[in-house]
Automatic annotation (TrEMBL):
Biological function: Subunit of clathrin-associated adaptor protein complex 1 that plays a role in protein sorting in the late-Golgi/trans-Golgi network (TGN) and/or endosomes. The AP complexes mediate both the recruitment of clathrin to membranes and the recognition of sorting signals within the cytosolic tails of transmembrane cargo molecules.
Range of residues in the leader sequence: none
Protein name as catalogued: AP-1 complex subunit gamma
Pfam family, one: Adaptin_N
GO molecular function: GTP-dependent protein binding; kinesin binding; small GTPase binding
Topology versus the membrane: Peripheral membrane protein
Subcellular localization(s) per the UniProt record: Cytoplasm, Perinuclear region; Cytoplasmic vesicle, Clathrin-coated vesicle membrane; Golgi apparatus; Membrane, Coated pit
Top-level taxon of the source organism: Eukaryota
Gene coding for it: AP1G1
Domain GAE per the UniProt entry, residue ranges: 701-816
Record organism: Anser brachyrhynchus (Pink-footed goose)
Entry keyword Transport: yes
Amino acid sequence: MPAPIRLRELIRTIRTARTQAEEREMIQKECAAIRSSFREEDNTYRCRNVAKLLYMHMLGYPAHFGQLECLKLIASQKFTDKRIGYLGAMLLLDERQDVHLLMTNCIKNDLNHSTQYVQGLALCTLGCMGSSEMCRDLAGEVEKLLKTSNSYLRKKAALCAVHVIRKVPELMEMFLPATKNLLNEKNHGVLHTSVVLLTEMCERSPDMLAHFRKNEKLVPQLVRILKNLIMSGYSPEHDVSGISDPFLQVRILRLLRILGRNDDDSSEAMNDILAQVATNTETSKNVGNAILYETVLTIMDIKSESGLRVLAINILGRFLLNNDKNIRYVALTSLLKTVQTDHNAVQRHRSTIVDCLKDLDVSIKRRAMELSFALVNGNNVRGMMKELLYFLDSCEPEFKADCASGIFLAAEKYAPSKRWHIDTIMRVLTTAGSYVRDDAVPNLIQLITNSVEMHAYTVQRLYKAILGDYSQQPLVQVASWCIGEYGDLLVSGQCEEEEPIQVTEDEVLDILESILISNMSASVTRGYALTAIMKLSTRFTCTVNRIKKVVSIYGSSIDVELQQRAVEYNALFKKYDHMRPALLERMPVMEKVTTNGPTEIVQTNGETEPAVLETKPPPSGLQPGSQANDLLDLLGGSDITPVIPTVPTSKPASAGGELLDLLGDLNLTGSPVPAPAPQISQPPFLLDGLPSQPLFNDIAAGIPSITAYNKNGLKIDFTFERSNTNPSVTVITIQASNSTELDMTDFVFQAAVPKTFQLQLLSPSSSVIPAFNSGTITQVIKVLNPQKQQLRMRIKLTYNHKGSAMQDLAEVNNFPPQSWQ
């Protein structure tokens, strides 16, 4: 058989192909020749054939038939064969295929080889694709190489140890003795990989983290290394753009961030070096900016001094002036995370942040918009709203919905006056009315209704806003409602805030009729206009007959909703005309009612704060004793009440009102009375300050919590409570935390149980799980288990992380017996 062509010739031949089909034909022909060579057990050219096969694999063609040939090359005594064999194993094999287990013994032999380069190949392969079984078998060899004096092998062994720990976390303690002397190494490669290994151990084990903080005194060692890097002179071996080994500096800063988090002593030990790095690092090159960014993240995550935090925010402020878009985006994202804790420091850079709204890059615009809304407060609301309204005018359509919602929320929270509030919302509706959220119309109507002194001004402004332009449907709906309510004020010209306009009754009806017949009007908008015309029949005197005629016309409309309204209004004119003035009188002042009672409980990281709940005074006509009995009846018969948090003992004993406030979704009539409830036999664990019977047993009654899921940085814990009123109901509170460096967004938790159970899933506290375990999401699950069977559950998790949509399924079968027996 002739000798196969060399790899270089194959590459040259494939590159001459002019079409995809021609390339595919060449590949298939060569694959056939390689298969024939493999079948003939041709040892001479096996290495060359596998190398060509790897090149085809890199081009995207199937190369799985070369897996066993890779194992044969690994078993060879020649270094050139081993090199290609191990490379092929890393590319073509993974732990899902049982074939990889066949190479365990070869790797073990090569880890003990006399040549360091063969040992290095084995370490690289194990660190790249070693399964948990391989890691268990070979961890001892890796640990032995980690203690060797050869720096070439130590750095590879450290990285291999990281992979072993990720696959088999319980082997972590095996590598602990070997880590003691790693940071004393002068070789930067060993230092770098050692820091990576220590970081992995600290992230995966709280016990290891505490050990390195207290026993190993790791922080002073890292501070010493970082100081030497900053103060050292020019070293051509490690210099990158004038900075000594920036990769090692970044790794050390990340490890310091983990060690200093929630630890006062460690944070204090690293404050000085962080200040040195922040002030001495050159910012003209991207390398220096990378180090500064890591320094800022470390300062913000540890318990640093206030002056150091201001310095970090000023660094981010300088990043905003950088020409590099990536640096500006990173700065805006970091400022958005810190604005809640260091609000005043971030406010100093408000003008620069607002300027970023004019950036051409859409991602920078979005971050700048989110940060701008976070900076709005009572002192700067006028100026910030002016800038954001200007941004709303000129921004792309995909920004308008979020920007409009943000302006609505900020205006509601910080409005200096009702007129300013109304003007701002009307400006939004005029500019981006088609993009506002669904509740914008009722919220503005409520605001206008409650601002009695602004009725004439508002109806005049809205009338002028919709003259000849019906494109913004929410604006037309609000204008129709206001004209129907306050049309008499519009016609009489009673506006004092601005120069009144002269409008006749017929002109007002012309506008409303043109809305009814306009092609741009939605069905809901036509309903608003028809109702407004009907209301004007009691406010106008000269045009009642015209109104009757218009209403009667729409009694045969093809729009069922419009037809029903018109028929009912016609009936008012004919059969119930005596009731019409009373039915169509002006709306009273509306009270803002928040639906979904449990959402009114203020939450901080998923925990309620009972201190912020108000106790409502009782109406004078209610009897305290009877109302307390009614309350107990309601508590005894309801299985759908939300979980009530344990009330601190410092609360007054007569806190019946607070108990009712917590039961926001019970449809109670009347207000609670702070009177003691009738005496009930109480279990010994009841708090002294809460005499009434609790809905659920306290967690401390003996039901242990469990970890239902812990993967990819996402951890979900279950805690349990049992209902006193219905022992068959188990209430499970989930707490989701995130130990990674980035927030997990759009988090959705779903659960399913066997048919013998019934499950109710309440709304979560949030959809974003903050990074670095800085907060949690809580959600309540209620499970009805009438047959007292063992509880089993399947959960589905979906969320976005690092720009990717993540989804995972898991089964929870380790529920404690106390939760279901």
